[in-house]
Write a structure and sequence with these properties.
With 430 residues, the protein is of the alpha+beta class. It has a single domain, classed as Orthogonal Bundle (Cytochrome p450). Helices cover 47% and strands 11% of the residues. The chain contains 14 helices and twelve strands. Helix 6 packs antiparallel against helix 10, helix 8 crosses helix 10 and helix 12 crosses helix 14. It is globular, with a radius of gyration of 21 Å. The protein starts with 36 loop residues before the first helix and ends with a strand. Belongs to the cytochrome P450 family. InterPro entries: Cyt_P450, Cyt_P450_CS, Cyt_P450_E_grp-I, Cyt_P450_sf, Cytochrome_P450_monoxygenase. This is Cytochrome P450.
Amino acid sequence: MTLHSDTPSAGQLRTATGCPFGASPAVAAPQRDATDRGQLLLRLARSGRDAVSYRIGAERNVLLNHPDHAQHVLGSNRDNYSKDTGANRYFRTEVADGILTADGARWRWHRTLLTPAFRDRQRLAATAREAIAALIARFDSAADTGSEVNLSAAIAEVTLSITTRALFGMNHQPFIEHCAALGSVLDDAGSLLPGAAAGVGPRDALYRQIRDAVSASATEDHGPALSALTGDPTHAGEALHQQMVTLLLAGYETTANSLTWAWILLMQHPDIYGEWQHLLDTDHDRAADLTKALFDETLRLYPSAWLLGRRALADDHVGGIDIPAGAAVTISPFLLHRHPQFWDDAESFRPQRFLTGGTRPTHRYAYIPFGAGHRYCIGSSYAHDEAAMILTALGARYTFQSAHAADARPDHKFVLRAPDPFGVIVRRRS
């Protein structure tokens, strides 16, 4: 549910300067990277250095790609780094100004206010069971007719349903179109020029729907998050709606992307898929362990929050390079989770890493799919519980098949997107 980013629009990248080890040549982005931020950062990371300094126009940028560096910026020296990044300014202006973009005392108050809403796991479980039952009815119909299903959209709808009902006590249907439209605006954030306002239309439409839904539910069960917000005088009117939009987008979209990737990885690895389904049939305890490991390994390879952006408030020195005040600092879980010093066979899907006795790094900042430090994702336990329920229910009942799985590639947008649409054939298991 964390959506942090502060990467360059690669088309704006001019020259990489201030190289970390003095005599090293500058790193420049080739033209082929101009529309793919992921490829740009992979290229910088593969330069053989864990700290790379470069410029976007006149702005100094630093990519840090070592767990020690992440711990310094997100943990031990966190007070020197704010969230006043380009991506967060864009999110605050064009989408919503809530817990995601807040800093300092304002963020701490949001966190304190909302944390209890994410502890009601019984409510989450009951809500998820209802939403999954509706999804199963749709998949049963598809299995009977042999028709293709857009897995990305189906999973996104069920996670949106769970988020709106569990947190706000609301029906998700009115929000589907508007959330998708605003998500598309976020996809374009990296390529927009400063001052662009492409999000105004979709944003205003979603806000109108939020206002109408809050008014209509005045006498109903609001859900723990909405109850907390409406009971807080600092969240009256527009502030309430902005916080709700933040929680909606961060709460459903990241989990949906991760679950779509989990199914894609299973289809790419039929041996693991078969072993997991066998355990679902025969050994619930071991199946639960493997389900969690499957999801954790998916988050390693394809963390939805693939970028964590910060801005230096004062001069610093990390990884052999000077970071001047005002520099934009990027830490990428997508890259950290592939660091060859910490991950063996890093590009391979190996859920056993996360089982008891599995080999994985001991450095706690080597694996940070939900961020790290004091801003660790408020909804991480929610996401794990929700994912486990959806994976288990669908995995026990169906086998998905797709001709597109082998060629699936991530789309490095504001969040790390799975292919959409992603068509699958649903086979009911005997």
